[in-house]
Design goal:
Number of helices: 1
Number of strands: 0
Largest sheet: none
Helix content: over 70%
Length: 63
């Protein structure tokens, strides 16, 4: 093989590796965002339960 062919092969492999790395990073970022959203939703639900309980206690104490 000539030097030019080796360089073309190296360029193609580098481009392929770059695409794979971008895909893995993208997938990881999407998964991390999904986890963050899940935590946020659970925290919001917990806050709503706490507020509802606090309101119930206030109403019961006012009677």
């Amino acid at each position: 093989m000539t030097t030019q062919r080796w360089l073309q092969l190296a360029t193609a492999l580098t481009a392929l590796l770059l695409v794979v790395m971008i895909a893995v990073a993208w997938r990881s970022a999407v998964e991390e965002q999904r986890r963050a959203d899940d935590v946020g939703e659970r925290a919001q639900a917990a806050m709503e339960r706490i507020e509802a309980r606090a309101n119930a206690l206030e109403n019961a104490a006012g009677r």
